[in-house]
Amino acid sequence: MRNNNEFKQRMSLVKAVIPGLQLEAVKKLVENQIDIFTEIIWKNPEKIIWTNMVMPLEIFYAAGLVPINMELVAGWLATLGLSKKYIMLSESMGFSPTLCSYHKAVLGVCENGDLPFPRAAAITSHLCDGGNGVVNHFVHRYDTCSYTLNIPYHNNGLHFSYVLQQYRELIKWLEDYTGSKLSNEKLSRALELSNRAREYWVKVLQLRRGVPLINGHLALRNLFGATFLFGTEIGVEVAKAYHQQLCDSKAAESKTDSNRSTKRILWIHFAPLYANQLMEYLEEQLNCRIVFDITGYIYWPEYELEKPLESLTQRTLSHFYMGDAQERKNLYSSLIKDFRIDGVIHFMHNGCRAIPGWSWQVRQVAEEGNIPFLEISGDCVDPRGFSEEQMRLRLEAFNEALRRDEFVFRS
Amino acid sequence: MFLGVDVGSISTDAVLIDSQKNILSYYIVKSGFDHKAAVDKVLKGVCEGAGIKSKNIIKMVGTGYGRRNVSGIYKSVTEISCHAMGIHTIFPTVRTLIDIGGQDSKVIRISEEGFVETFVMNDKCAAGTGRFLEVMANAMDVGVEMLGEYSSRATKAVKISSTCTIFAESEVISRISQGDTEEQIIAGVHNAIADRIVAMVNSIGLKKDLALTGGVAKNEGIKAALEKKFGKILVPEEPQITGALGAAIYALNYKES
């Protein structure tokens, strides 16, 4: 390991800010992440498996591996003020400026030796086209063992069988990599833990339909990684702590924000993760509270423990960014209704081909519901093009559109 | 009387209205570096124009990117909302507005009451803005106010990139060296801006009537290039003061807080 490893150094310093974090769930999550990135990944790099954003991770936990999500790594690099350095390094290696910054940040931090090179990687092909490219680079650069689940776009019987067979192959691949048979009991236990965490999460989403109990950007920015722990004891603890804190806040509801002028926002996609005050400005200054963000949506049904691989297949194929467009529109409509949404903000992350490509559907749904819709173009990880004033202007105009009722007319 | 002040990147505009929304006077100055001085100038000019003293102004709303530099304002409102309200006051049937200012361009969908339904803006790039035109005019040593007249004489338009102001400037210079006429190049520049605007309009969908405002709306070549794409476009008599007029309407209509 290099002596001047900035990532590890800064990650260690995060310990000092944990007591000041507002959400108990985030405290637990961050402690876990510090442990992984400053200790576990260095001591047992062969126990680490790199993966991507929509891969169910229970199977890796059952295999005794520690999954590292590449988007989460990039998020940390942005939060710690390091993403620019690693993105520029990967661009100097020849990766295009138009590629997703999440992936370039990951390529850079590995190239710089600030994380051990990946020994193993297993990803899914759906939603994110860049992940496959990153893993291909790992294979060529570091001789990484890799497996990719090839996921069809539509969920039907044929595709179900196709993905199920790949899960069986993935288990064989994992057994070859680890040198030990994957225990059915451990897989069942991981799925059970995942179900328990999921249950808390579903209850959290139910609570968030009411009066805003937290600033939603705290969940959007900090709890994205929590679902990656589903399948572990710590995953249950994080979800339970999140649920408990919201229950406590609800019990003290009279002291919380029940202001009628609060506007309720549905946020689509992620948000800038490097240092900025944009989200605080939206929620605290403009009083537009993010009551739901799509990244925290539990789209999959509870796992059937007696059918583990079928359950994982079902989850993989049921992602809402796949399949019929009308179903996606129906989902947005129901979220708008259930969470009593006043306005929708769609963050258009540079370099992402999948999610911004669906923004027209969100716009249509917002129009049909006669609620304001805002698209903001920017980058979640690369701070170089960020203009806070430009983004604030857009948020302010959106806020004004939400508050038409504050005007009287004399004509 | 109610005042709206729009502090833009190039000009600072003020509009004074009465309680019946009649425009009593307006005044336009260059913004320069000292926004406070520009605001003082327009305030003086607009008061002199209406024959009133500034103390007679009941309420003032600031807008534009320098809106927070306007002292004595009741509220600041974004230029997006103000342009929507301003054009609604002039042309109540307008549902889509294209505003091309010095440093940004925006397309705004407007409700029947003059509120913003949705909008898109150019993204941190000068292509498709007034600055783009200034750079091209400088490259050809043609006054920016003459661009419309030049393009009206063009028998054809050359292809100019709409991607980047700097690259487009290089293209213009190479076109000059290739012997293309100023008229053809300027018509191409106008088409490049129109291409940018068309993409923005299409992204939110066109609802008619359609209007064009901002300093660039005074350029007949831009209007003509856009009308080729969209059909008839309404342009106010003084398109530069739309934002300030909207701000004045907000000053008139804002509820007491």
Automatic annotation (TrEMBL), chain A:
GO terms for molecular function: hydro-lyase activity; iron-sulfur cluster binding. Its cofactor is [4Fe-4S] cluster. Pfam families: HGD-D. The keyword Metal-binding applies. The chain crosses the membrane at residues 59-83. Keywords: Iron, Iron-sulfur, Membrane, Metal-binding, Transmembrane, Transmembrane helix. It comes from the Bacteria. Belongs to the FldB/FldC dehydratase alpha/beta subunit family. This is Benzoyl-CoA reductase/2-hydroxyglutaryl-CoA dehydratase subunit, BcrC/BadD/HgdB. It comes from Alkaliphilus peptidifermentans DSM 18978.
Automatic annotation (TrEMBL), chain B:
GO terms for molecular function: iron-sulfur cluster binding; metal ion binding. It holds the Pfam family BcrAD_BadFG. The keyword Iron-sulfur applies. Its cofactor is [4Fe-4S] cluster. Keywords: Iron, Iron-sulfur, Metal-binding. Gene3D superfamilies: 3.30.420.40. This is CoA-substrate-specific enzyme activase, putative.
